[in-house]
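Supplementary Note 2. Why include the ligand at all?

Several targets in our set were suspected to adopt different conformations when bound, so apo predictions alone were not considered sufficient. For every target with a known small-molecule partner we therefore ran a joint prediction. The input for adenosine-5'-[phenylalaninyl-phosphate] is given below.
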Amino acid sequence: MDAGNLLNLKNQALAVISEAETKKELSELKVKFLGRKGEVNQLLKNLSDLDPDQKAQTGRLLNEAKTAITQALRQKTLKLSPAPRDWLDVTAPGKTFPSGHLHPITQAIEEVSRIFERLGFTRVRYPEVDWDWYVFEALNMPEDHPARDEWETIFIDAEENKKMGKMVLTTHTSNGQVREMERAGKTLPGKTPIRMLNIGKCYRRQQDRTHTVMFHQFEGLVVDRHIGIPDLKGTLNHFAREFYGPKARSRIRPFNFRFTEPSFEVDFSCVHCLGRGCRFCKSGWHEVGGAGLVHPNVLKAGGLNPKVYSGFAFGWGIERCYTLKPGLNLDDIRLLYSSNLEFLNQF
Ligand code: FA5
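The joint prediction is reproduced in token form.
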């Protein structure tokens, strides 16, 4: 065995390996050249017959041939293996793009509007920066009347108007009452009735778990001939059932507002215990706002004759009404305006 024979063996092996077309052929070639009784091993066994110089040189050449054949076999095996294809699962759900949603209070405003629209109320919006006249004076709260103190008003640094007084950020949506009477008087002379739903932002200098500086109210105003407390009570109960569920009820308690007579505080039954009293509500009821029959002085300020017309009005906080819904149990309304997406994404 000389170096030339070894080179031949190596070249012959590399040639047939490169021409092999199947994996089966390759495994046969592996046995033929590298197997226990294969050609390379046969030659290795014969090494002991050689003299020491030849032994070293032939051994090195044999190892080189063995390495080259092994590598050629590995490469050709890879070539004959089918390339892994990109996996496409046509049944997998598609990728959805994140999309936003309406703020929970906007959703609540929509829901409240739908409930009253079905009763024939028309949604309106009146200024959120308004004259003292519409916010207080026309509502039977003359300047310096102590009742004004409860409204923790934010005043605008603007020129005063002789008749209308100072400008304020509206403390309640009741500013829409006289504005609506004026509008109805102009556009429907002699044809009042009014069924108004005024929803807007309100502002007061208050901030704690149940109060925010900016909040929303919705104001209902109905004016017609022969409107009385049963009309108010029926409307309250209808809203309670539609907004909180068929078993919900409303309750009115005597109170004092300058612009309604008589005046009431309005409660809705607790959604958890339906008025029996539980850990969540204590008394069975939650207060949401005020209501009453429109005061004759307010009708007069709106240009309507109190001997002909009567009406009822109510005004509630949207945040307050919304947080009493079943399953919400939100004990700090400031979270609604915290821009905390982890919280808001739940709605
Ligand atoms: C009023 O604002 C009257 N205008 C309601 C009214 C209308 C009475 C028509 C009669 C006829 P009051 O100040 O109680 O009333 O506020 C009503 C509701 O607004 C409260 O019960 C509460 O739900 C909500 N509210 C008041 N202040 C805040 C505040 N700072 N943050 C959040 N909600 C508030």
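The longest strand covers residues 214-224. Residues 3-76 form one domain. Comparable summaries for the other entries are listed in the accompanying table.
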